[in-house]
Design a protein that fits this description.
Length: 658
């Protein structure tokens, strides 16, 4: 016969009022069963044939040939297959030790509660459990459905509370390790650290190198789209942590091909980047390292887990965000500091006192003072081999900063040299004579780029696009093609929301993340449309503009420009359109210098304040005051930045040695 739960009022009343009449609701055959709950733990065994319920149930129980055969777990030892998850459900899998232990504790509590009941009720309840335990899965479902229809609300509430804890599955342990690792790759740093504290198995998986290698790929030198965090690259810091042997001087990270090994820091000679983003040629030490024997290279090879690589960068980024730093001060100049640059070993500063000073970044020791200019040093840039300076005496000098020897001097500007930059064998300089000069060292030729109407205060080379960007006191920034020496775009003017003061600094950037832009106001759009209607350009000019747009679609070109001006603002420009997309306010006096990387902008101004801005949102994160003089120059690295003051002091803010 089919199982049909009784829902008459009399039966429900009996169930709700008392449990003493429980045996009256059971078939007489079940009441006479000799199975005991105290002697056996319910265990499901397979049966060969299905028989009908009804009058045959009592006979089957008496003869011991029932389809429902409860047996003791003491007498049955299940043979485990290679994959127990195919034979057992999750809760009854012998390999799931935590679930088995929890069940044993719960059954012990139930047994204690059962023993407090009269013997007759114990026997009845035990028989019900035994019958349910031996039933096939679909029979169990029918039994539970019937019981649920007869449960009162308090009983349903108790079931909900019990079931909510029982249905929790340790899926990380149950799933194959490959799937578990894939799931863990979706967690953030804090969640991974919490997961490692769950159990030994979870810790082993959460600390796996493949998981943290994925974390590093997702965060280092770029912002994660999910959590919004990005971590500094810190190549120079890793090089500093290598052994002091000569072959360890040049180090780069070689990610494992499979993604499952630790970070490899090998003695492979490659180009590094200094704090200004410039590629640096290999040094003499690098060449020594590359020519050393394989045995020597193997001896200095250093392998670190990706979790440690991520951890040290996470600490630095956290200090940046919270404004936790340690300050160092370098004193030695007798006049204002005008230019500054540093890497992992050297800090170089130029001053109005006509000298360039070279400092040890870590110890603060003054290593060397370079003298040779007849006027103040207004600009400098260096790599591992050479230092190039521009002075108020209208000359450009090239130095070997390891020996202090002046290698060559370039003369050609009619007035002071205010800015210099170089790439490979090409030097670019900006001067107070309103010109930009391009010096080709190998061919000994010099080209003058004319177009600015005031002092050229800053020049930058963008090697990938073979272009030059120049900023000027005429409130504009110009983009030059180095192959043709022609100006291909001008950034500035009222229509493009340009600067209204002298532009002091320009930085080309390639930004992949979406930037927060200023909202366009109605009158600006109207003004732009009026200006466009008033233009009387020829067809040749339009075709030239179309050609420029096609050139700027090249991915080698920078996507944005960053400029600072004495109008107290910092502006972000779209290179493709030539328009200013964001203006950052905060300084109350002119911004003399800015520096930027993938995540932030550092600005120094005449108001004696240094501000750190978020590059993506444009919000001011921190303001560093307490300076004794206006800030004339700043430089930025992965874990620190440096400022030069007009009273000759140099201050370094370190976020990694806290």
């Amino acid at each position: 016969m089919s199982f049909r739960p009784q829902t008459t009022p009399n039966v429900l009343q009996d169930v709700c009022d008392t449990s003493n009449d429980l045996h009256k609701l059971l078939p007489s055959a079940i009441a006479q069963s000799k199975a005991s709950f105290a002697e056996s733990t319910p265990t499901l065994v397979a049966v060969s044939k299905f028989q009908k319920h009804g009058d045959q149930t009592q006979q089957a129980l008496e003869e011991g040939s029932s389809i429902f055969a409860p047996t003791s777990s003491k007498n049955v030892t299940p043979s485990l297959s290679k994959n127990n998850y195919q034979k057992f459900c999750y809760r009854h899998n012998p390999e799931v030790k935590r679930t088995t232990r929890v069940d044993e504790d719960k059954m012990r509590q139930i047994q204690n509660s059962l023993e407090k009941l009269p013997i007759r009720e114990q026997e009845a309840i035990s028989n019900v459990w035994s019958l349910f335990s031996a039933a096939p899965s679909h029979h169990r479902t029918l039994m539970l459905q019937g019981l649920l229809t007869q449960c009162c609300f308090p009983q349903l509430s108790m079931l909900s509370e019990e079931v909510s804890s029982l249905i929790k599955i340790d899926f990380i342990t149950a799933l194959p390790s490959e799937l578990s690792l894939k799931i863990l790759c979706y967690l953030d740093c804090a969640s991974l650290c919490n997961a490692a504290q769950v159990s030994t198995k979870w810790k082993k998986l959460a600390d796996d190198d493949r998981v943290w290698h994925h974390m590093c790929e997702q965060h280092i030198d770029k912002k994660c789209p999910q959590c919004g965090w990005g971590l500094p690259l810190m190549l120079l810091k890793r090089a500093r942590e290598m052994p002091t042997a000569p072959s360890a001087a040049a180090t780069v990270v070689t990610p494992p091909a499979s993604g499952s090994e630790a970070e490899q820091e090998t003695t492979v000679t490659k180009k590094r980047k200094n704090n200004s983003g410039k590629a640096e040629p290999a040094t003499d030490i690098d060449m020594v390292a590359s020519s050393s024997s394989n045995s020597q290279q193997q001896a200095v090879r250093k392998t670190r887990p990706w979790k440690i690589v991520y951890s040290e960068r996470y600490k630095v980024e956290r200090n940046w965000r919270k404004g936790i730093y340690k300050a160092k001060e370098f004193q030695g100049h007798e006049d204002g500091v005008t230019c500054i640059q540093f890497d992992d070993q050297f800090l170089m500063t130029g001053s109005y006192d006509k000298t360039v000073k070279i400092w040890n970044v870590n110890t603060g020791e003054l290593l060397r003072t370079l003298e040779g200019h007849n006027g103040g040093i207004k600009a400098l840039v260096f790599d591992d081999q050479k230092l190039i300076t521009g002075g108020l005496d209208s000359t450009i000098k090239v130095w070997n900063h390891h020996t202090g020897q002046c290698i060559s001097t370039y003369r050609g500007h009619a007035e002071s040299v205010l800015s210099v930059d170089f790439h490979n064998k090409t030097i670019v300089s900006g001067s107070a004579d309103h010109t930009v000069k391009v010096w080709h060292v190998e061919t000994r030729t010099c080209y003058s780029l004319r177009g600015h109407t005031e002092w050229v205060t800053c020049v930058k080379i963008h090697p990938k696009s073979n272009t030059i960007f120049s900023a000027s006191d005429d409130s504009t920034v110009r983009m030059w093609d180095m192959s043709t020496n022609q100006c291909i775009r001008i950034f500035g003017g009222f229509k493009d929301n340009g600067h209204i003061g002298q532009v002091q600094c320009v930085i080309p950037l390639t930004i992949k993340d979406a930037l927060v832009e200023d909202e366009k106001e109605g009158f600006e759009e109207d003004t732009a449309s009026i200006s466009e209607d008033a233009e009387t350009g020829t067809n040749d000019e339009n075709s030239e503009e179309d050609l420029n747009n096609k050139i700027l679609d090249d991915p080698n070109y920078p996507t944005h420009l960053l400029t600072s001006s004495l109008d107290n603002t910092i502006k972000v420009w779209d290179v493709k359109t030539g328009k200013c997309i964001r203006t950052q306010f905060g300084h109350i006096e002119g911004v003399w210098s800015i520096a930027a990387d993938t995540f932030r902008i550092v600005s120094g101004a005449h108001d004696r304040l240094i501000k750190v801005w978020d590059l993506q949102s444009g919000k001011c994160m921190h303001t560093f005051g307490g300076n004794s003089a206006p800030i004339s120059c700043v430089a930025l690295g992965d874990s620190r930045f440096v400022s030069g003051l007009e009273n000759g002091r140099v201050k370094m803010y370190c976020f990694d040695d806290v």
